[in-house]
Design goal:
With about 180 residues, the chain is α+β, with helices and mostly antiparallel strands. Helix content is about 20%, strand content about 25%. It contains 3 helices and 8 strands. The strands form 2 sheets. Strands 3-2-5-6-7 form a 5-stranded antiparallel sheet, with no helix packed on it. A 3-stranded antiparallel sheet has the order 1-4-8. A hairpin with a 4-residue loop joins strand 6 and strand 7.
Length: about 180
C-alpha cells in the first residue's frame, strides 16, 4: 500500500511541472501559435446511408464499464446528420507548434453504416479535451502552404445538437 501511495505521489509530482521558461533573450513563450491558413468542411463517409450516435454512460466506482446508454445507438435524421457534419472541419495551419489532445477518451461515437447495415466508419468525439478522430482515417483537405492539418469540431454547436437529443455531453470530464 505504501508503494502504491509513493507511486501516486511521484507521478503527481512529475505531472505538476512549471511552465517552460521564455525563449532566451525574449519574453516570448516557448509555444508558437500556428497560423490558421484555411478551414475546410469535412463530410465523412458520404456514401453511408445511416448514422447512429452511441454515447457511453458515466463511469462510477460501482460501474467501471457502463456500456452505451442506448446499445443500438440513436439514428440521426437527415437534418441531424447535416447539423453534425457541419460541426466538422479540417483546419490547415502554417508553421508553429502543434497541440495534441490531452486525454482523448471519447464517449460519443458517430457510426456510419452502408445500405446493407455494415459499419463503414466512425467519428469519435471527446468533449473533455476537444479531440476528434475518424476511423478509418479521412483524407482531409490541406490548404496550399500549410504545414499541417487538424481534424476539428465546433464544440458549442455539437454540444447543442447532442443536448437537443436529450443525451449527456460532459461524461467523466471532471469538474
Amino acid at each position: 500500500m505504501r508503494y502504491l501511495l509513493l507511486m501516486v505521489l511521484v507521478v503527481g509530482a512529475v505531472g505538476c511541472r512549471e511552465p517552460a521558461p521564455p525563449i532566451e533573450g525574449t519574453e516570448e513563450p516557448v509555444w508558437v501559435e500556428p497560423d490558421l491558413i484555411a478551414r475546410s468542411a469535412v463530410r465523412p463517409f458520404p456514401d453511408a446511408t445511416e448514422v447512429r450516435l452511441l454515447v457511453e454512460g458515466e463511469i462510477t466506482q460501482d460501474d467501471l464499464n457502463p456500456g452505451f446508454i442506448e446499445p443500438e445507438g440513436r439514428v440521426l435524421s437527415a437534418d441531424q446528420r447535416r447539423a453534425f457534419e457541419r460541426t466538422l472541419s479540417a483546419a490547415s495551419y502554417g508553421e508553429g507548434d502543434r497541440a495534441y489532445s490531452a486525454c482523448f477518451i471519447p464517449h460519443h461515437f458517430f457510426r456510419y453504416f452502408d445500405a446493407q447495415g455494415r459499419q463503414v466508419g466512425q467519428v469519435a468525439v471527446c468533449f473533455c479535451c476537444y479531440g476528434v478522430q475518424a476511423w478509418p482515417d479521412l483524407d482531409l483537405p490541406v490548404a496550399p502552404g500549410a504545414d499541417f492539418v487538424e481534424f476539428q469540431f465546433d464544440e458549442p454547436a455539437l454540444r447543442a445538437l447532442i443536448s437537443s437529443m436529450e443525451l449527456p455531453v460532459d461524461i467523466n470530464c471532471g469538474d
